[in-house]
Design goal:
The complex is a heterodimer of chains A (232) and B (170).
Chain A lengths: L6 H14 L11 H9 L5 H14 L1 H11 L5 H24 L6 H19 L2 H6 L5 H21 L8 H31 L2 H31 L1
Chain B lengths: L1 H33 L6 H4 L23 E7 L4 E8 L4 E8 L4 E9 L8 E8 L1 E7 L4 E8 L6 E9 L2 E5 L1
Antiparallel strand pairs in B: 1-8, 2-7, 2-9, 3-6, 3-8, 4-5, 4-7
Classes of the chains: A mainly alpha (232), B alpha+beta (170).
Keywords (chain A): Membrane, Transmembrane, Transmembrane helix
Pfam families (chain A): HupE_UreJ_2
Protein name (chain A): HupE/UreJ protein
């Protein structure tokens, strides 16, 4: 379904994506103007929070790398939908409960686990689990579980600001919807690129290289976040 | 045989990815993010620049020698005020010219926190241009009051520099 979408349908969101993705890319921090807004806002602000959510997702390379890994070998629209839903359910659950129940998790550790999720997916795509352990961990469950961690990661970003409780649930919901919209845009971009590439023989030739690179990026994220954790 | 090869290629992929990650982390990411630069490469590439203590720059306070300029319109029959916040003994130089016509001007200062309406005038004149400097005798709001006594709007260009924070039109 999604895989069969015509190129032209994907072009419009792509344009919007290009317009939205700003030069500054932050996987961990939030830029100054957003910070300023978050700390001074009062009451319900649906669109700004949606925008921040979408922007966070689109500029959060840790989330995007994981999605690339998850989607790499999925070419059936049904599978794409299923896996993306698992991821969405996972991160929405912990994003909402994490903030509303005020569960404090260390942002560095959570981001390290998110880096780990990228390594896992790269290794899984290389066939590593099947080969060494005989079975592959249930990929759907894995996406759900890592989705939970990604949600905690999102929650820590919001919690940094100690938002006023007034309108918090609504703002959070708006942020969450923004995250999903951002994810949708990112997905279209990723799917477009992967599905286009899949048509060529180079896709299979470079599948190993790509997933190795993915693992490497995951290791970098883990190393960066753990260093941050020990330095804080 | 084949599983051995698969194992080897998997190990190879893992090791390569780990090695690349460590190299990139040590050479680029750690220097840039945390100022940890064991090899000195980050410093050479200028990546540690992000960690230099941010100098407190008060953007509103002009640096010495930096010139500010503003074009204002004094409406016919009305007066406007343009002010600078200055500390005691800080200095400002200025120059202003009207496009056409003369303005009544009162260059004065009001002490910070004063509620009595007290002000001290440094210059009072009616002119179409003026050049000068002043040193603030006290901390507060210093600047120009122009009054246009004609029946036509008059445009005035003000150029100034010194130690102040612009308060602007009042």
């Amino acid at each position: 379904m999604l895989g069969k979408l015509k190129l032209t349908y994907l072009l419009y969101p792509l344009l919007i994506l290009c317009a939205m993705a700003s030069v500054e890319v932050f996987a961990h921090g939030v830029d100054d103007s957003t910070r300023n807004f978050l700390q001074n806002n009062t009451g319900v602000q649906i669109l700004p929070f949606m925008y921040i959510g979408a922007k966070h997702m689109l500029t959060g390379y840790d989330h995007l790398l994981f999605l690339v890994g998850v989607l790499f070998f999925l070419h059936r629209g049904k599978d794409v939908l299923l896996y993306v839903s698992m991821f969405t359910i996972g991160h929405s659950l912990t994003l909402m409960t994490g903030v509303l129940a005020n569960i404090q998790v260390n942002a560095y550790l959570i981001d390290a686990v998110i880096g780990l999720s990228v390594i896992y997916k790269g290794f899984d795509n290389l066939g590593g689990f099947k080969h060494f352990f005989g079975t592959q961990p249930n990929p759907k469950k894995a996406v759900l579980i890592f989705g939970l961690f990604h949600g905690f990661g999102l929650a820590t970003k919001i919690q940094e600001f100690q938002l006023p409780t007034e309108g918090l649930a609504t703002n959070l919901l708006a942020f969450n919807i923004g995250v999903e919209l951002g994810q949708l845009l990112a997905l279209m971009f990723i799917l477009l690129a992967i599905n286009y590439w899949r048509q060529f023989s180079s896709f299979n030739k470079f599948a190993t290289t790509t997933n190795t690179a993915l693992m490497s990026a995951g290791f970098m994220l883990v190393g960066m976040q753990l260093t941050g954790y020990f330095l804080q | 045989m084949e599983t051995n090869q698969k194992s080897r290629s998997l190990l190879k992929a893992t090791v390569i990815s780990l090695v690349i990650a460590i190299v990139v982390l040590v050479l680029f990411i750690l220097p840039a993010e945390y100022n940890i630069d064991p090899t000195g490469v980050g410093e050479k590439l200028g990546l540690t620049v992000f960690n230099n203590e941010a100098k407190p720059v008060d953007t509103a306070v002009s640096k010495q020698g930096q010139q500010d300029s503003v074009i204002l319109i004094v409406p016919a029959g009305k007066g406007i005020e343009y002010k600078l916040a200055m500390k005691q003994y800080s200095k400002a130089t200025y120059e202003w010219t009207t496009e056409s016509g003369e303005l009544y001007v009162d260059l004065h200062g009001e002490p910070k926190g004063d509620t009595t309406g007290y002000f001290e005038s440094y210059t009072i004149a009616t002119a179409n241009e003026m050049k000068g400097s002043f040193t603030a005798p006290f901390e507060g709001s210093h600047g120009w009051y122009w009054k246009n006594k004609s029946n036509k709007d008059i445009q005035v260009q003000l150029i100034f520099n010194g130690e102040y924070a612009i308060e602007g039109l009042k």
